[in-house]
Amino acid sequence: MLPLAIYIHWPFCKAKCPYCDFNSHVAEQIVSERWKAAYLKEIKYFAERMDKRKVSSIFFGGGTPSLMPVNLVKAIIDTLSEYFIFDENIEITLEMNPTSIEAQKLEGFKAAGVNRVSVGIQSLRAKDLKFLGRQHSAEEALAALKMAREIFPNYSFDLMYARPEQTLDAWREELEEALEYAGPHFSLYQLTIEKGTPFYAAHSRGEFTLPDEDVATEMYELTEKMLKQKGLLAYEVSNYAKPGFECRHNLTYWHYGEYVGIGPGAHGRIGFPRQATMMIHGPEAWLKSVEEKGHGLQSDVVITPQEIKEEAVMMGLRLASGIDAVRFKTATGLDLWSCLDQQKLKACAAEGLIEYTPDYVRPTEKGRMLLSSLTALLLL
Ligand SMILES: C[S@@+](CC[C@H](N)C(=O)[O-])C[C@H]1O[C@@H](n2cnc3c(N)ncnc32)[C@H](O)[C@@H]1O
Ligand code: SF4
User: Fold this and answer.
1) 67, 97, 120, 243: least surrounded by Cβ within 10 Å?
2) Strand order in the sheet with 354-356
3) How far does the centroid of ligand 1 lie from the alpha carbon of residue 334, in Å?
4) Are 62 and 22 in contact (CB under 8 A)?
């Protein structure tokens, strides 16, 4: 049995960014003792549902987990270590926002067991940071990053590109600057306009436009090329790492491994046959449910083989290394080749969109840019 990953969702931020559709809220007051009790209770609930399993990764995501009190992060890690067996190389990541970083707190997270951080920088341009509704300047973001990397040499940072009015040359310049601060891992996302966000409404009203698709594609290709020169390889659509520093937690998702999702709105995939768990989205409602029932489950269903096939192929093709047939069988119980259309496989390979052997199937660079249509085409 492969080790588990555990995701802990912290749903609060200092301010809500207008592009963001993550489950994040601005709260007037957070009673931290109540939150602590609820997280520990939900951990216990899942621990009792599963055997004492080995855990290879814990990920504090958000929201802004760097706003969590250090003693809460510590209590969560300590409790998890009582109920599960930590892999000796366990990766424990915490997402950070540059506005909530101070050295003393970072040292506290480290002492609690965190060994990797992911910092949300988003842009190094003042005008764009303002447009994105960020609460920090580029200088503040870089100062926070420098502080974080002193304490956590295993760090990553996020930028978003293909922003309104951004040209290819402007992105080249900004990325070059950002690369001076790159560590072993980098996440570079194309800005997407998510339904229900203030950006969605503003974009629909024509208040701004995004670079057209050809420019976005050129930006993507340029990004990949520039990062490769620095030894950061595109191991997934938006993620780059030096070999050996790929985010272990996210690899669990892309390999269709098992993960437990704890906290408001968290998703999980656990057990054989796979159960899909989803926790109540609203922070208050989740809290109440955990206090009353011991968990905040909103739904808990067995996934059908058809759904498993779709999810596992979609996730696996995001990886540059693609899907390994043996690992696929172990993770899903399904034979990879009976999930895929043989004729379409041949046609896509002939067009240079995928490569495959009896052992694996993987998208080429060209294929990775057309991933959703490629996946839909290949699936039976
Ligand atoms: C859940 S956020 C957590 C990071 C942290 N709260 C922060 O903002 O600094 C993870 C990352 O998702 C990316 N992201 C969020 N919304 C996005 C969007 N609409 N388009 C592209 N990337 C997005 C951002 O780069 C962000 O850093
Ligand atoms: S991008 Fe980060 S800081 Fe902004 S609302 Fe989303 S989770 Fe919060």
Assistant:
1) 243
2) 323-324, 360-363, 354-356
3) 33
4) yes
How far, in Å, from the CA of 191 to the mean position of ligand 2? 13
Q: Which ligand is the nearest neighbour of the Cα of 135? A: 2
> Which atom in ligand 2 lies closest to the alpha carbon of residue 20?
6
User: Would you give the DSSP letter of residue 361?
Assistant: E
190: β partners: 161
Instruction: Identify residue 185 by its one-letter amino acid code.
Output: H
Rounded to the nearest angstrom, the distance between the alpha carbon of 69 and the centre of ligand 2 is 18
pLDDT tens digits for range 312-354:
999 999 999 999 999 999 999 999 999 999 999 999 999 999 9
Nearest ligand, CA 194: 1
Closest C-alpha residue for ligand 2 atom 3: 13
How close is the Cα of 63 to the center of ligand 2, in Å?
Answer: 6
Other Cβ atoms within 10 Å of 211 Cβ, number: 21
Rounded CA gap, 236 and 219, in Å?
16
Pairing state between β 354-356 and 85-96: unpaired
* pLDDT tens per residue across span 165-202: 999 999 999 999 999 999 999 999 999 999 999 999 99
Q: Which residue has the tokens 């249509």?
A: 373
Q: Which residue's CA lies nearest to atom 10 of ligand 1? A: 120
For 280, what's the count of Cα atoms within 13 Å in the CB-facing half-sphere? 17
CA of 191, nearest ligand number: 1
Domain ranges across the chain: 4-253, 322-378
Roughly how many angstroms between the first and final C-alpha of the chain, as a whole number? 27
CATH code reported for the domain at 4-253 = 3.20.20.70
In angstroms, what is the span from residue 17 Cα to ligand 2's centroid?
5
Spatial distance between the Cα atoms of 147 and 144, rounded to a whole number of angstroms: 5
127 C-beta neighbours (distance < 10 Å), count: 10
Point out which residues pair with 86 in neighbouring strands.
Answer: 55
Q: Give the ligand at the shortest distance from the Cα of 121.
A: 1
Q: Please tell me the distance from the alpha carbon of residue 20 to that of residue 26, in angstroms, as a whole number.
A: 13
Instruction: Check pocket membership of 12 for ligand 1, CB cut-off 6 A.
Output: no
Q: Is the pTM of this model over 0.85?
A: yes
